[in-house]
Amino acid sequence: MRIVFIGPPGAGKGTQSVRLAEELGVTCLSTGEVLRQARSEGGEVGRLIGEYLDAGQLVPDKLVVELVAERLAQADCEKGYLFDGFPRTLPQAEALDELLSQRQAPLELAFEFVISEDELFRRLSKRGRDDDQEETIRERLRQYAELTDPLTEYYDLRGILRKIDAVGDFDEVYRRLQEAIWSH
Ligand code: B4P
Prior knowledge:
Blueprint: E1 2-6, H1 13-24, E2 27-30, H2 31-40, H3 43-55, H4 61-72, E3 81-84, H5 90-102, E4 109-114, H6 117-127, H7 134-148, H8 150-156, E5 161-165, H9 170-182
Parallel strand pairs: 1-3, 1-4, 2-3, 4-5
The chain binds BIS(adenosine)-5'-tetraphosphate.
BIS(adenosine)-5'-tetraphosphate (B4P) binds near residues 10, 12, 59, 168 and 169.
């Protein structure tokens, strides 16, 4: 299967994607993880990426799309994949469509994680990653509303959007994802 997860920071995309990808036997790709890894490797690109992450801003589309294109070309993506946190902007969604149309393998499902801001703050302040400071979380939420939220309409118009209530314990949210997949 070919799936993308869309949702605000802290909605639980990363938490759910690993288990779901394993159950479906597809490759799980988190652009957040890929970017944090690139930062930890250092160098000019790593330093630049780190600046965006620490400011709670999205990394420029061109850079992210290049990383994803490289990853998609690897053999393990042939069996399907689950993208966690990609695409995050309309240009990224269009670039992904372009890459997939070359492979004649369009996306099948786009899950939108729906959750309140209060719950997001509660979760992220408990997690305490470098970019989980209050001011950075606010900026990430602002970027989400401005740049990522419009993607839901993009996928809804195609009939592949499924909204998932992301409030509840881990197993409950996971069951909702499974049900949406079974009824697909
Ligand atoms: P990501 O790594 O994608 O992380 P996230 O949005 O903060 O969190 P996620 O939704 O995965 O939440 P998680 O499961 O961890 O992005 C980080 C940054 O990378 C972005 O801000 C951006 O700068 C950059 N980036 C990534 N992709 C990009 C792209 N395509 N373009 C440009 N920039 C990009 O859960 C959060 C916490 O909640 C955890 O502690 C978890 O334990 C807890 N939790 C999860 N589910 C729960 C539940 N059901 N109940 C209670 N707690 C729960």
